[in-house]
Amino acid sequence: MSPADLPTGVQYEIRHGGQRAVLTEVGATLRHYSVGDREVIESFPVGQRSPAGHGQVLAPWPNRLQAGTYRWGDTTHGLPLSEPSRHNAIHGLVRWQAWTATEHVDDAVSLTHRIHPRDGFPFLIEIELRYRLGDNGLSVSTTARNLGPDPAPFGIGFHPYLRLGTGPVDDLILQCPGATTLVTDGAGIPTGRQSVEGTAFDFRSPRAIGSLKLDTAYTDLPVGSDGRQRVSLSRPGPAPESVTVWMDSGFGHVMVFSGDTLGPERSRKALAVEPMTCPPNALATGDAVIRLEPGGSWAGSWGLQP
């Protein structure tokens, strides 16, 4: 089987020191990231497609869009219901599409995809991602450009599953400084906001996840003096491990998912920590949607620091 015939297409390996990452042609997906013999994310085999969003890019909207419907300007648009059980469109349009590598060197790869106009999303947007390994871990830089004649809505998210050790997430220590969570209905659509103060979802101080089920969007994350927001996960014990997800201020939301709905093989084995520029259902509500003017662009970055 040639690389192009693999479920995720051509595999792009990058290395730096003891770090190794593999990005894929399909979806510009982060399939693997390790430091030495330690996996930083939950990988999936080269002979499989990405399960449950593992490592995928979520654009031009992350998470869910209620009924696949939104209004932009004077026009109502409808998108295919890619989560039919909940009557939602989910995770954008690019995660099963081929991306083009415009650069591939030892420690970095740049991948580009152009979203062409279609029913439900009649806009022309080019997205470029640069994955790079360095002394401080993996960084992901994103640029989105509107190549069309009309203003276009845009949002993006990323879906890494963090894995420390081989046990369940229950024993891991989470620090998520978001002061607010989004309250959702049974379809995962936000219905309001709630302070974490006094709730089981308050991880502003690090503590064990325990049996708490997380499929929770956090916002109002404090920005450090370096312009970054951080969510950290650690495993205590005689050989402690940790990993930090950092985001620049362009990513105002983060989804934390403990994987309870993934079936026995994956349930609560890894914790998804998903940087997002906007919340679920943002195309419908307009909340934090990026407006790309014709010829305009947006740039943002995030990364993993083991």
Question: What do you see in this structure?
Answer:
It is a single chain. With 306 residues, the protein is mostly beta strands. It has one domain (3-305): Distorted Sandwich (Beta-galactosidase, Chain A, domain 5). Helix content is 1%, strand content 46%. Strand 1 and strand 2 form a beta hairpin. It is globular, with a radius of gyration of 18 Å. The model has no long low-confidence stretch (mean pLDDT 96).
Task: Name its key features.
1 helix; 9-stranded antiparallel β-sheet; Beta-galactosidase, Chain A, domain 5; 1% helix; 6-stranded antiparallel β-sheet; mainly beta; 306 residues; globular
- The residue-averaged pLDDT reads 96
Q: Give the number of helices.
A: 1
The structural class is mainly beta
Biggest sheet strand line-up: 10-11-12-13-27-23-22-17-20
How are the SSEs placed, and which strands pair?
Blueprint: E1 11-16, E2 19-24, E3 30-35, E4 38-39, E5 57-58, E6 64-66, E7 69-72, E8 75-78, E9 88-90, E10 100-105, E11 108-115, E12 125-134, E13 137-146, E14 152-154, E15 157-158, E16 161-162, E17 173-176, E18 180-184, E19 190-195, E20 203-208, E21 215-219, E22 228-235, E23 241-248, E24 253-257, E25 271-276, H1 282-285, E26 290-292, E27 297-305
Antiparallel strand pairs: 1-2, 2-3, 3-4, 5-15, 6-9, 7-8, 10-11, 11-12, 12-13, 13-27, 14-26, 16-25, 17-20, 17-22, 18-19, 18-21, 21-24, 22-23, 23-27, 24-25
